[in-house]
């Protein structure tokens, strides 16, 4: 998927007359596959090694899944563009085309995401989960080898890897709200990048409406200060100039979902996200986060 994303960005840049060269870098998140993501460390699991190359000036931009970016980057880096967002839902893929996801049938689904485990516990107490790591191809192979009835994944990744025909269920967004940034590709650069170069790259890659949505969702994450492996969710939508953001937290045991919503002008995107986070924190979210951090 990371390679697909790099190709996608390179194609957009080339279409705008920019020459590209790809440098492929493996991150901790790609290499350490015997541990849950939440146990590898809370920050930079998929980003640290790429930032090292940016720092050294070996590369001009780093291409990431927006979802994998920590809420606050170090002083040396900034996100300069977000590509047009893909469908944001989580889906179930299965080798059994007749698999039914409902609130009664007992099933085992594989996922490595604390958000998805907590949400399944809350909305689908009949479903059990098993941990799975590795890239999408590895996960599909494990599924075929009998690990559970299905995998819970982001539609975006499944689509990019062309496994659409294995999708048996789309989770509804109002219950199963995705993680902040899901479905978009974020471009990171050094704060010292030449302003003209930045402008040209933004023109080739940035999708304005997606950027407003992500600014709101990332504002939510910043205020929450939870790191990237907490069961937090946030989704902003843009209707004309009005942005609506819903965000919250799910208890690890599924006992509670705290969810708030704010509407306002898109120019206040980040602030609206922060307000939602403050409301969540005040309504028991603070205690929930402390408990979550003690349990991961
Ligand atoms: N950390 C893994 C990761 N990062 C981004 C995506 C999906 C693609 C996207 O949201 O852009 C995935 C896999 C998944 O959640 O199923």
Automatic annotation (TrEMBL):
Know the name of this protein? Hydroxymethylbilane synthase
The Porphobilinogen deaminase C-terminal domain covers 213-281
Coiled coil located at which positions? none
Query: What family does this chain come from, according to its entry?
Result: Belongs to the HMBS family.
> Which keywords does this Swiss-Prot/TrEMBL entry list?
Porphyrin biosynthesis, Transferase
Q: Which gene encodes it?
A: hemC
Please indicate which superkingdom the organism of origin belongs to: Bacteria
Q: Where is the Porphobilinogen deaminase N-terminal domain?
A: 1-192
Origin species: Algivirga pacifica
